[in-house]
Amino acid sequence: MFSLVLACAAAAVTAHAQTAAAPAGSAQPRAVLVVGDSLSAEYGIRRGSGWVPLLAARVSEQYPKYRVVNASISGDTTSGGLARLPALLRQHAPAVVVLELGSNDALRGLSLAMSEQNLRAMARASREAGARVLIVGMRIPPNYGRDYAQRFAGMYATVAREENARLAPFLMDGIATDRAMFQADGIHPNEAAQPRLLDNVWPQLEPLLQPGAAAARAG
After folding, report:
1. For residue range 116-150, what is the model confidence (pLDDT) as tens digits?
2. CA–CA gap between residue 72 and residue 125 (Å, rounded)
3. pTM above 0.70, yes or no
4. Whole-Å CA distances, 105 to 33, 116, 185
5. Which positions are annotated as active-site residues?
């Protein structure tokens, strides 16, 4: 059975940051800002074991001119992310913004048009602040209706294409139907799944960290 991959709106935790330390004597690293929900906020797993802290460790090793800031909150929606984003952009002046939101919108039955509009506004605000943007796509199971599921998945590709952002097509690629990769709730990936989540994001994120990187096409 296709595992439900929606973020749980019931549990809200305080946003936290995993920031890679700057090498001694170097300039302050530029921020890679992750704005997401429980799928990025380490819901139900040990602190430091989620895909975002794993990303921070990889970035620290391979691209020390950058640091990762995790501004993800369990239960967040695209509306919540849009409301929080301006302050985050001012505080961190990120070079790259990763947007992993939308699952809770679907869980709550919110308008897809509104969700798309919010994602678009976040991508645009990030670009206008000088950041390159990566959108992390999600999918929902067919029991929500084939049309709704297709439009939900397509929303991410549309925004990425039209807002000149890169796209990681599906955060749960390769694990969505593997029950062993999920916690008891059948919703949130467990600790063993976190490296795979990172591997699903990294191929689209890494080009944005390389010298001379520009806002790349969706892909």
Report:
1. 999 999 999 999 999 999 999 999 987 778 899 99
2. 18
3. yes
4. 21, 10, 19
5. 38, 185, 188
